[in-house]
Amino acid sequence: MQNAGKFYIDGKWIDPISSQKMDVINPATEQVITQITLASEEDVDLAVAAAKRSFESYSQTTVDQRLGWLEKLLSIYKHRYHDVAQTITAELGAPTTMSHEQQAAAGVDHLEDFIKALRDLKTEETLYNGETLLREPIGVCGLITPWNWPMNQIVLKVIPALATGCTCVLKPSEFTPLNAMLYAEMIHEAGFPAGSFNLIQGAGPIAGASMSRHPDIAMMSFTGSTRAGKAITKDASETIKRVTLELGGKSPNIVFDDVDIEDRITFSVLDVFNNTGQTCDAPTRMLVQRSIYDDAVKVAKRVGDAASVGDPTVEGNHIGPLVSHIQYDRVQTLIQAGIDEGAKLLVGGVGKPDGINEGYFTKPTIFADVNNNMRIAREEIFGPVVVMIPFDSEEDAIKIANDTPYGLAAYIQTPDAAKAGRVARKLRAGMVRINGAFPRAGSPFGGYKQSGAGREGGMFGLEDFMEIKMLHKP
Asked: What are the positions of the active site (predicted)?
């Protein structure tokens, strides 16, 4: 990529002040793809200054003007769709079929929905008491995105910022930086004004912290680990800036005894294995009613044994590598912890799959006879690891499901609509997926407790980037 090592600031690709380099690694081969530069505090200052200058004029653009740029961006993205999918496969290791059907597709789905939402956004309305409410862009926004669904998260942050008249500085994960560079090229081609969008690369402790503390950034939007979210919140508190967070999860998946066991257990296992388990709202804690538990364990083992791991450049539904050696080591540590704590290892275990000697591949793993006090039931593993926990009653399932510091998503498997609705209302989670229902673009994405604050997507995502101003008239 011709702009690797550069930053996109004030409408131009420029050489950074920092000279610190980092290799971008293909996780399937462990080979270097390219090098990027890691931003210094001075680089952050340059990007923020450009965004601040641009805000004066960009915040005054009309909705119609911004819709024009967004529609042009959508057209460009569709034209470069294959480039996006290929890049995500190379730097994340997502299998090419999954990259095309899910990873790159998110860039279209969310952008189309934000365009619809912006058309419906009321920037001025009269309240029931007769007074006038205005919605205005909050200012310069700092955006930090993760590596696991890179384009999905970039679009969920960059587009609502630009759509509402904010300007922004994006810092993507240093492990998957190349798709963000592609997106910067598209934004430039779409004609967004210089300084409205700025891209830097960097590590969280320096670039991320500098953004969070920066007095000229009005809002931080972060997706990533709960640990990093806490650090950003503390840094942002110095200037009382708005912070929205989409953090970790340990989502319960309640499987009642009235389901089609083959269908629902197969779905549940494969949903965790998708994206190599690197999904924050994956149904990683499978709670199964005791009367069908033994049969569910048999099905889970069969599905797990049949799962294949392989080259992400080959089409198919196999599992790719984890993103990095750091993530590989973490997943291995937690699989070993499950074994040490006495959980029953059904499938997988520590080490790489048979016949694979290079790349950050791990064995898809399923544990049975887990209790909710084990590390593998409480910590976010972020790998293709399922833990199975038996429960006796509806009340027991709800208690176990809610016994977690997280609250991003929850899943319910039952054909009984009344039971599903009753249980869903008692689960402390921001999203409840019933019988495999998939979230649609435009629905607010986010969670309770230590899974974050704020919502992304659609109208709710736009409103997070806006301030409310009241006009009190005599």
From this structure: 246
